[in-house]
């Protein structure tokens, strides 16, 4: 069987004024359906840039992302958006919750915009329960702790049972307890629903939660021993 997600020779350079900042310099890898892959690497190595490309949120300068047989670059903006909403659950590093909506609506909005039509209320409540959010559903983001906000963001990403979960530092600002809740939930969702999970993390302990680790450095995928921050035990 072919790969479910394929990154093929991705290049991306940002232009700041007259200066070119290369972020990805030819990144290729493939991920099988149902794999839980973690992506590690130093700050600035291109992880978030890769996250945006994998999710079809920005376009590569060259190279391509193929997900479940679809090449993002050949899709129209509307098709790309539709595919994103249907197939991918995103967890952003900075939560990206809507400040005027309570937790319940922040989670439900993912169901509303997905167009999947499968608004399983039992699943909604179960996710909230597993993430310890049941008593916080009427709170707005400003009335939630950082850990709770991150758990709401994760509930929003998972509530549609997406085929793919992309998470950028989902435990970045969390204490050990909250990190464990988030990691266990990602693992459980991956196992129960056969979801393909790509998780970016700085934390070697968190990285071990996955089936396999991809190491990045200076916009490249490198071997583990080339990653200066990585100390295998
Ligand atoms: N919007 C942008 N405009 C210009 N340069 C950017 C932009 N976003 C990222 N960069 C640059 O691209 C490179 C890769 O950034 P990226 O955010 O992908 O790294 P990262 O691995 O996610 O880092 P971190 O671990 O700190 O989140 C960095 O040199 C960064 O300064
Ligand atoms: Mg980043």
What does this 3D model show about the protein?
The protein is α/β, with parallel strands linked by helices and 233 residues long. The chain has a single domain, classed as Rossmann fold, CATH 3.40.50. It is 33% helix and 26% strand. The protein has a six-stranded mixed beta sheet, with helices on both faces. It has a four-stranded antiparallel beta sheet with strand order 2-1-4-5, covered by helices on one side. The radius of gyration is 17 Å and the shape is globular. The model has no long low-confidence stretch (mean pLDDT 91). Bound molecules: adenosine-5'-triphosphate and magnesium ion. The site of magnesium ion has 2 residues, from helix 1. The site of magnesium ion (MG) has 2 residues, from helix 1.
Count of strand segments: 10
Return the CATH topology.
Rossmann fold
Distance between the termini: 33 Å
What number of domains?
A: 1
CATH class: Alpha Beta
- Percentage of residues assigned to helices: 25-40%
User: How would you describe the shape?
Assistant: globular
Class based on secondary structure composition and strand pairing: alpha/beta
Strand order of the largest sheet: 6-7-8-3-9-10
Summarize the structure.
The chain has 233 residues and is α/β, with parallel strands linked by helices.
How is the topology of this model organized?
Layout: E1 5-16, E2 19-31, E3 36-40, H1 47-54, E4 62-67, E5 70-71, H2 77-87, E6 88-91, H3 103-114, H4 121-130, H5 146-158, E7 164-168, H6 176-193, E8 196-200, H7 204-207, E9 212-217, E10 220-222
Parallel strand pairs: 3-8, 3-9, 6-7, 7-8
Antiparallel strand pairs: 1-2, 1-4, 4-5, 9-10
The chain binds adenosine-5'-triphosphate and magnesium ion.
């Amino acid at each position: 069987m072919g790969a479910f997600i394929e990154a093929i020779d991705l290049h991306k350079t940002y232009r700041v004024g007259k200066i070119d900042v290369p972020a990805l310099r030819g990144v290729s890898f493939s991920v099988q359906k149902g794999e839980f892959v973690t992506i590690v690497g130093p700050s600035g190595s291109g992880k978030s840039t890769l996250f945006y490309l994998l999710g079809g949120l920005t376009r590569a300068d060259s190279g391509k992302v193929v997900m479940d047989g679809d090449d993002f670059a050949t899709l129209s903006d509307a098709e790309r958006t539709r595919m994103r909403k249907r197939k991918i659950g995103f967890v952003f590093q900075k939560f990206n919750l809507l400040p005027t909506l309570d937790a319940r609506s922040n989670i439900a909005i993912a169901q509303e915009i997905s167009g999947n039509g499968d608004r399983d209320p039992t699943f909604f409540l179960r996710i909230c329960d597993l993430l310890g959010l049941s008593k916080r559903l009427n709170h707005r983001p400003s009335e939630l702790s950082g850990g709770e906000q991150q758990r709401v963001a994760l509930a929003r990403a998972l509530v549609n049972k997406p085929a793919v979960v992309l998470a950028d530092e989902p435990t970045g600002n969390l204490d050990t307890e909250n990190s464990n809740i988030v990691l266990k939930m990602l693992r459980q969702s991956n196992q129960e629903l056969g979801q393909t999970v790509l998780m970016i993390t700085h934390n070697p302990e968190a990285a071990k939660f996955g089936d396999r680790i991809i190491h990045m450095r200076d916009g490249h995928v490198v071997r583990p021993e080339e990653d200066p921050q990585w100390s295998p035990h």
